Amino acid sequence: MNMTKLLEVKNLKMYYSTMKGDVKAVDDISFSLEKGESLGLAGESGCGKSSVALALMKLYPSNAKILSGEVLLDGVNLLEMSDEVIRQNIRWKRISIVPQAAMNAFNPVFTIKEQIVEAILTHEDVTEKEAGERTVELLRRVGIDPSRASNYPHEFSGGMKQRAMMAMALSCNPDLIIADEPTTALDVIVQAQVLKEIKTLQEELGLSMILISHDLSVVAETCEKTMIMYAGNIVEDASTLEIFRAALHPYSIGLLGAFPKLTGERKRLESIKGNPPNLLNPPPGCRFHPRCPNAKDLCEVIPPFIQETHKGHRVACHMVNKHPEYR
Ligand SMILES: Nc1ncnc2c1ncn2[C@@H]1O[C@H](COP(=O)(O)OP(=O)(O)O)[C@@H](O)[C@H]1O
Ligand SMILES: [Mg+2]
């Protein structure tokens, strides 16, 4: 067994039941995360990224159902644990999740410090004084002056609220933090500052991190590995460097084409034509085929499996993996 593996997701499938049928939001995905590793999950809006985050922690809404799969944390399957056990032993202490738009979740009638102290006291056997000291230290770490700790949420800017959310997520020393679109609501300059802080914290504390964003540039700035999701499937993953230098899946290449160059000349952005499919009735075969410049007949019929092209790089594409019909 590889001792450094923290999280291993195997064949996870989560659908939402609706009046019109099942929304196939997470459709048989597998991936793993090492201790201390940062993984970016990217893809257009509606491709299932937030659903993955919620499924990992069994935080899904009542119409969601897990059809198959395992979520192994240090080898133990979280999906087999009761909600009660997860709430008491896993959430905050082992895995913290900062859901999309979480910065609006602070309660307006309590100070920021009170809310973080409360989170610590709920999960750990420490005195109020210790929890208070830890809170001030955490706020300092995320770049908030301790003198602001007794402010109310409305006295904080968006960037400060997002930082305070990170402090709260770190308050019980988790091994893994999942941040869903942590900077999407912020303006570009604040976004860059907050991302830099998240990265520094993750490195200093040796945390594992899954950072979710529809914006590939956000992932590029913060994560060692990049995983690309399309229509409920993982279509490619590799080191971030490799994705940016040598992406293989036509969807990844398309996303990169829509990626503004951070340095050098301003390039005309070419986005991929069309939109991700409705996951009630995704296209048969490869779900990307209607938008794919390379699609062949086979792609319309047979869904590709994700396969390693070489060590550490996986792709789900018949054209890349050389389906027997094309050899
Ligand atoms: N509670 C729900 N019931 C039905 N469909 C849902 C529910 N939540 C999300 N969806 C659908 O699941 C798909 C994936 O959504 P989501 O995970 O939020 O994607 P992303 O985070 O990549 O934007 C979308 O088609 C979305 O409309
Ligand atoms: Mg989302």
Q: How would you portray this structure in words?
A:
The chain is of the alpha/beta class and 327 residues long. It contains 10 helices and 12 strands. It has an 8-stranded mixed β-sheet, sandwiched between helices. The site of magnesium ion has 5 residues, from α1.
Question: Number of DSSP strands?
Answer: 12
Q: Supply the CATH architecture.
A: 3-Layer(aba) Sandwich
**Distance between the first and last residues' Cα:** 35 Å
Structural category: alpha/beta
Mean pLDDT: 91
Strand arrangement, major sheet: 6-7-8-3-9-10-12-11
Q: Tell me, what's the shape?
A: globular
Model regions low in confidence, pLDDT < 50 over at least 5 residues: none
Question: At the third CATH level, what is the topology name?
Answer: Rossmann fold
Determine and state the CATH class.
Alpha Beta
Using the CA coordinates, give the radius of gyration. Answer: 20 Å
State the helicity in percent bands.
Answer: 25-40%
What is the H/E string?
Answer: EEEHEEHEHHHEHEHEEHHEEH
Largest sheet: 8 strands, mixed
Distinct small-molecule ligands in the complex: adenosine-5'-diphosphate, magnesium ion
User: Any idea how many domains?
Assistant: 1
> What do we call the CATH homologous superfamily?
P-loop containing nucleotide triphosphate hydrolases
Total number of helical segments?
A: 10
